[in-house]
Q: What sequence folds into this?
C-alpha cells in the first residue's frame, strides 16, 4: 500500500505549485516583453493590431521564432525556481519562513514583470495618445470623392510592386544607406536611372517615411492607396467591422476605387493567404480586385496542393513567375490594368532563404535582400521586353521598414526610409525630388499622377502629388506634429472611414 503524504507535505507541494505558476507567469511576461523590445522597434499600437488580427495566413515561422527565442529562458528560470524550492524544503527548520518570503518574491516578480512590460511596450505613450482627440482630418484630409480626377491624355497601366520591408538602409553608406556593402545594387541603379523621391541630397539613395499607423503591411497598403494611417478601433463598440472582415474602411475612396471607376481591370497577387489582416476584403471592396494568393496558386497548379515553404506560403521566385503569366493575360484584354503584387521573402525575422539565394555574405538577411534585389531586376528586365511596357507605369516601393533590427540596430527609426522608384512616369517633376520629407500618404496621389491623371488641388487623403512641387503635409506642419496628431483619437476618422 502506498504511503499517503502527510498534510503538511501536501500543503507545501500545493503552495509550491501555486507560487511556481505565479513565478513562471511573471518570468514569461518579462522574457517575451524584453525579446519583443529588443527584436522589434514598434510601439504598443502596432502590437495591438497584430494581436487583434486573425492568425489565419500568418507565417508559422514567426510563431515558432517567438517560442524558440523565449521558451528556453522561461524554462531555465523555471528550473532555477524548482531547484531553490527543493533546497529550501530540505532546510526544514527554516521552511515556514522561506515559504512566506518565497511567496512574496513570486508575487513581486509578477508585479515587476507587468510594470516592466507596461513601460517597455510603450503603453503609457499609447494611452496618452488615444486619450486626446485630433482635428487633423477635418483640417487637412481631402476626400477623393469630392475632387476632380481627370485624364488629360491617354493614361497608362499600372504595375505596383510592394517589396516586403525594403528600406534604403540596405544600401551602402557610400550611396546613402547604412551598410559597408551595398546589398541592393540593382534597386539602387533603378532609382538612379529613373525617378525616386528621397530625403537625401541629390545622388544619394533615400526614401519616404512611415508615420505611426503605417508600419506594418496592411497599414502600409492602406496608407499608400488611400492617404490615411490605420487607426481603426479594435473593439466592436468602436464600430469596427473588420474583426469579422465583412467590411474594410467602407467610407474610403481609394486608388482601387478610382481606377475601377476609370475602367481598369485590377488584380492583387501575393504568395501568402490574402485573408491575413483583411487584405482580400480591402482589395475586393475597393476596386473589385481579382485575388491571386496561396490557394489560387494551388488551384492553378503552380504549386502542389500541400505546398508550403514553411514561411508564409510560397517564395517570390514563384510569385514572379505567376506575375509574368498574369500580366500577359491582363495585357491581352481590351481594358487598362493594374496588377499589384506583394513579395514576402524579406519578411521579418531575418528573411527566407530560397533556391536562388547565393549566400555571398555572412549575414542571413543580407543574402535574402541581395536575392530579392536580383529577382526584382530580372522581373523588370522581362517587363521591358513586353509590348505593354511603354504604356505601363511601374511603381516599386517597400511597404514599411523591417520590424526587427537586423542590419539596422544602430540606425534611428526615422532614418530608416522606405525605397521607392517610378518607371515610365508620365509627368516630369516640377518640385525637388530630393531632400523631401515624404510619407506613405503621398504615394496615393503621386501614383495616379504618374499614370497620367490630373488631380484637382494636387492633394488626396493626407497626401500630395509629389510631381506638383507642392509641400507635403509633413513639410507643411512638421513631421513630428503630423505623427503626433494621427496617433490621437479622431471622431472624424471613425465616422467617415469605418
A:
Amino acid at each position: 500500500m502506498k504511503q499517503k503524504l502527510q498534510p503538511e507535505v501536501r500543503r507545501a507541494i500545493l503552495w509550491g505549485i501555486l507560487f511556481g505558476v505565479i513565478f513562471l507567469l511573471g518570468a514569461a511576461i518579462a522574457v517575451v516583453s524584453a525579446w519583443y523590445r529588443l527584436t522589434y522597434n514598434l510601439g504598443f499600437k502596432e502590437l495591438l493590431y497584430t494581436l487583434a488580427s486573425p492568425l489565419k495566413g500568418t507565417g508559422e515561422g514567426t510563431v515558432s521564432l517567438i517560442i524558440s527565442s523565449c521558451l528556453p529562458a522561461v524554462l531555465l528560470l523555471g528550473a532555477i525556481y524548482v531547484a531553490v524550492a527543493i533546497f529550501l524544503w530540505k532546510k526544514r527548520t527554516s521552511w515556514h519562513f522561506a515559504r512566506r518570503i518565497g511567496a512574496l518574491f513570486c508575487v513581486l516578480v509578477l508585479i515587476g514583470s507587468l510594470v516592466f512590460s507596461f513601460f517597455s511596450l510603450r503603453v503609457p505613450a499609447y494611452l496618452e495618445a488615444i486619450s486626446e482627440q485630433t482635428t487633423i482630418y477635418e483640417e487637412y484630409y481631402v476626400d477623393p470623392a469630392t475632387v476632380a480626377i481627370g485624364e488629360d491624355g491617354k493614361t497608362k497601366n499600372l504595375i505596383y510592386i510592394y517589396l516586403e520591408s525594403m528600406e534604403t538602409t540596405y544600401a551602402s553608406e557610400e550611396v546613402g544607406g547604412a551598410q559597408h556593402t551595398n546589398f541592393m545594387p540593382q534597386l539602387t541603379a533603378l532609382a538612379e536611372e529613373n525617378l525616386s523621391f528621397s530625403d537625401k541630397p541629390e545622388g544619394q539613395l533615400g526614401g519616404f517615411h512611415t508615420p505611426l499607423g503605417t508600419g506594418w503591411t496592411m497599414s502600409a497598403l492602406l496608407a499608400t492607396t488611400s492617404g490615411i494611417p490605420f487607426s481603426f478601433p479594435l473593439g466592436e463598440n468602436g464600430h469596427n467591422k473588420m474583426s469579422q472582415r465583412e467590411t474594410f474602411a467602407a467610407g474610403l475612396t481609394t486608388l482601387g476605387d478610382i481606377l475601377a471607376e476609370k475602367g481598369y481591370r485590377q488584380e492583387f497577387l501575393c504568395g501568402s493567404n490574402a485573408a491575413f489582416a483583411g487584405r482580400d476584403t480591402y482589395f475586393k471592396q475597393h476596386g473589385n480586385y481579382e485575388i491571386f494568393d496561396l490557394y489560387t496558386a494551388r488551384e492553378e497548379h503552380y504549386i502542389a496542393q500541400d505546398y508550403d515553404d514553411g514561411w508564409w506560403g510560397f517564395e517570390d521566385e514563384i510569385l514572379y513567375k505567376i506575375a509574368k503569366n498574369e500580366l500577359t493575360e491582363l495585357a491581352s484584354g481590351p481594358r487598362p490594368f493594374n496588377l499589384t503584387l506583394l513579395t514576402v521573402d524579406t519578411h521579418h525575422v531575418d528573411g527566407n532563404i530560397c533556391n536562388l539565394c547565393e549566400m555571398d555574405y555572412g549575414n542571413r538577411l543580407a543574402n535574402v535582400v541581395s536575392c530579392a534585389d536580383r529577382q526584382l531586376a530580372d522581373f523588370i528586365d522581362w517587363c521591358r521586353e513586353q509590348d505593354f511596357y511603354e504604356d505601363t507605369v511601374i511603381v516599386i516601393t517597400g511597404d514599411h521598414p523591417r520590424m526587427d533590427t537586423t542590419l539596422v540596430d544602430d540606425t534611428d527609426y526615422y532614418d530608416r526610409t522606405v525605397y521607392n522608384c517610378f518607371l515610365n512616369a508620365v509627368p516630369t517633376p516640377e518640385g525637388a525630388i530630393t531632400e523631401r520629407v515624404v510619407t506613405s500618404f503621398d504615394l496615393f496621389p503621386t501614383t495616379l499622377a504618374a499614370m497620367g491623371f490630373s488631380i484637382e488641388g494636387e492633394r488626396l487623403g493626407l497626401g500630395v502629388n509629389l510631381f506638383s512641387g507642392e509641400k507635403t503635409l509633413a513639410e507643411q506642419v512638421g513631421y513630428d506634429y503630423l505623427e503626433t496628431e494621427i496617433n490621437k483619437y479622431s471622431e472624424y476618422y471613425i465616422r467617415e472611414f469605418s
